[in-house]
Amino acid sequence: MRSRLRSGILRESRRPFRFQICCCRRDFYFREVSPPSDVQLLFEQYSENGTMTIEHLRRFLVEYQKLKDATREDAMSILHSLRHHIMYRKELNVDHFFRYLLSDHNPPMAPSLGVHHDMNAPLAHYYMYTGHNSYLTGNQLSSDSSSEPIIKALKKGVRVIELDLWPDSRGNKVKVSHGNTLTSPVNLNRCLSATRDYAFIASEFPVVITFEDHLVHAPLLQMVTKTFESKLHQPGTDQLAEFPSPESLKKKILISTKPPKEYLERQSSMEKEYDSAQELSDKEGSDQDEEEKNVFPEYKHLIAIHAGKPKGRLTNSLRIDTSKVRRLSLSEQELEEISQKHGQDLVRFTQKNLLKIYPKCTRFDSSNYDPLLGWMHGAQMAAFNMQGYGKYLWIMEGMFKANGRCGYVKKPDFLLDKDHIFDPAKPLPVKTNLKVTVYLGEGWHLDFKATHFNQFSPPDFFVRVGIAGVPDDTVMKKTRAIEDDWTPVWNQEFEFPLRVPELAILRIEVLEFDTTRHHDFGGQMCVPVSELRTGIRAVPLHSRKGIKYPSVKLLMRFEFEEPDSETENDG
């Protein structure tokens, strides 16, 4: 059902917000928002004589909200959630119906969907929630190393943890730190123990630890096997023709690193790149070769995901060995370079092997890059700094809200089709149109101080809404700013043609308008379009750090429509 958008109705409260300007006092009265016209028309359609019964509500859920399996019990559960409004009655009026639509019981993603992707395919068929320098508490140059960021990441559902391993000054222990920087170290045992204890709090699917291994000795092997015991997945061979599935690896921890021999061969180039102070004498090299002979067979079989980067040109890295699989790591600059002319080679490589993308070394502030370039080329591990915040980290968090927040998201079928290798550079037709209506917002007066946004008046909110996706889908649009209002009503509709909806993330951000263009932040939310529920939904907003506000939310409507022939041919 479609209707012409009209402004919502606002009820004025007698409780004023007072602002002092010099010797003058200004009072602004808070206005409680009431149902917009679209909601009122829907209520009229699904009610009788001003009353919505349980059966009426069930019909609304099935027909308009597209919850095809909704039952009378589901409708009863909604009534029960509103019991402080309706007491013991078994029907709703329009205000009760509006309260339900704007409640936490009507989110934009299905809360009970859980893990619903096929988890029996090889690991290479999934995007994996991946951290970079997972032990750092802040910036990449001088912050402390700790096990706490690892715990925090695992609680969020991150499934790939990265540790940089170095010998301590005495050479008999292993420390974790960002080499050749002023970051303080943390003992490896603490990091391993934290991983063991928190690995499966948020998800039962496997955790991968990638070692950037700057040492080769037996204690590492002993520490890993002793800490993880039966949780450690040991393939027993380095000749895997295909990675196992996430389902088969539930509650297992996997080690991914370069075998010692490969590390020794590239040691000199690593030292040069990072301006290492370490210099190995011929005798030390000989001693390490001898140690490698003793450690290599066991350590090699401990590695569940072998990492390796062939010498020579960058394109050599994409050669596929049909007899075994591996992990390749590329910097964000290397990905940009190789994707320009070899996009299909990247897609083909990632159908069987794992590709990890890591931030460039100049991101000292722990900022991040756009993960979509990697995802559209099939890269499973877009490694992110989790220490800060920003739009790219919000997009990453939005992506991994999918599939029950388990940390694994199945790649789209078109990236796995071996007979027709996807070409990311080729223009694509529009698959679907997403229509988004931004009705209104509320809750800021409860979660923020009266003068948080403006010392002299209520806030002037506007909403930015758009898509993070492949280049042709990526766009941001905005509503008008509503002046001096804690409960703004926008009633604005936007349309987004989507060519690759499978990789599209809906971005929503509320800002408080400032004439200097330094707008204040009022909340954000990112949702994978693939799991966006149609109909009218309450969208909870989150802080910069991704923490959900208790009260702030938007009322929005989402619709998918088939593209017309003119739009479809835009690609």
Automatic annotation (TrEMBL):
Write out the GO biological process terms: lipid catabolic process; phosphatidylinositol-mediated signaling; release of sequestered calcium ion into cytosol; response to stress
The chain positions of domain C2 read 417-543
**Residue ranges the record marks as coiled coil:** none
Annotated keywords: Cell membrane, Hydrolase, Lipid degradation, Lipid metabolism, Membrane, Transducer
Indicate the segments forming the PI-PLC Y-box domain, all copies: 329-415
| Necessary cofactors | Ca(2+)
- Membrane protein topology class: Peripheral membrane protein
Chief localization: membrane
Quote the biased-composition stretches of kind Basic and acidic residues, using this chain's numbering: 260-286
The reaction(s) annotated as catalysed by this protein in its Swiss-Prot or TrEMBL entry are: a 1,2-diacyl-sn-glycero-3-phospho-(1D-myo-inositol-4,5-bisphosphate) + H2O = 1D-myo-inositol 1,4,5-trisphosphate + a 1,2-diacyl-sn-glycerol + H(+)
By what name is this protein known? Phosphoinositide phospholipase C
What species is given as this protein's source? Eucalyptus grandis
What are the top taxonomic ranks of the organism?
A: Eukaryota, Viridiplantae, Streptophyta, Embryophyta, Tracheophyta
